[in-house]
Amino acid sequence: MTTARYRPTWDLVLDPLVSCKLCLGEYPVEQMTTIAQCQCIFCTLCLKQYVELLIKEGLETAISCPDAACPKRGHLQENEIECMVASEIMQRYKKLQFEREVLLDPCRTWCPSSTCQAVCQLQESSPQDPQLVQCKACDIEFCSACKSNWHPGQGCQENMPISFLPGET
């Protein structure tokens, strides 16, 4: 015959619950995630859903703390995101980051061919001036400024087709 040991009630202290700022639920600390940069804390499920939504929608490449009143305006680090989401979502996140880098880089541009997804280099001496770009993947030659076929000696507006709205002449 076994007997249960008596434990005084003061030994049965419950783990404190922490409130999630997103769903307003209260959870044990083990079910919460703290953002390293700002120390804001959310339930792991809410934070995961927030991160996945932003990546799936392609809304942000720098995922900020979901607390609109975050005093430090924190952002999630790449390793924090990677721990939270599935590998295919993380691949999409990295692709979005790369696309944004190319978009913001004055010395790189995307090939305008609909069948080509290559990134083309521009001459560093004058990346803002229209220049001939030859895609190394598909060999198309295009203008770096307007992405039309290369038009030497013509300005980009002269080369652009004139389009009218319905009802205009």
UniProtKB/TrEMBL annotation:
Pfam families in alphabetical order: IBR (PF01485)
Protein family per UniProt: Belongs to the RBR family. RNF144 subfamily.
GO molecular function: ligase activity; ubiquitin protein ligase activity; zinc ion binding
Catalytic activity, reaction form: [E2 ubiquitin-conjugating enzyme]-S-ubiquitinyl-L-cysteine + [acceptor protein]-L-lysine = [E2 ubiquitin-conjugating enzyme]-L-cysteine + [acceptor protein]-N(6)-ubiquitinyl-L-lysine
Residue span(s) of domain RING-type: 16-169, 20-66
Membrane topology: Single-pass membrane protein
Enzymatic class: transferase
Keyword Cytoplasm: no
Pathway as given in its UniProt record: Protein modification; protein ubiquitination
Cell compartments where the protein resides: Membrane
E.C. number(s) listed in UniProt: 2.3.2.31
Name recorded for this polypeptide: RBR-type E3 ubiquitin transferase
CDD domains named among the record's database cross-references: BRcat_RBR_RNF144A, mRING-HC-C4C4_RBR_RNF144A
Gene Ontology biological process terms in this record: protein ubiquitination
GO cellular component: cytoplasm; organelle membrane
Keywords: Ligase, Membrane, Metal-binding, Repeat, Transferase, Transmembrane, Transmembrane helix, Ubl conjugation pathway, Zinc, Zinc-finger
UniProt keyword annotation of Zinc-finger present: yes
Domain of life: Eukaryota
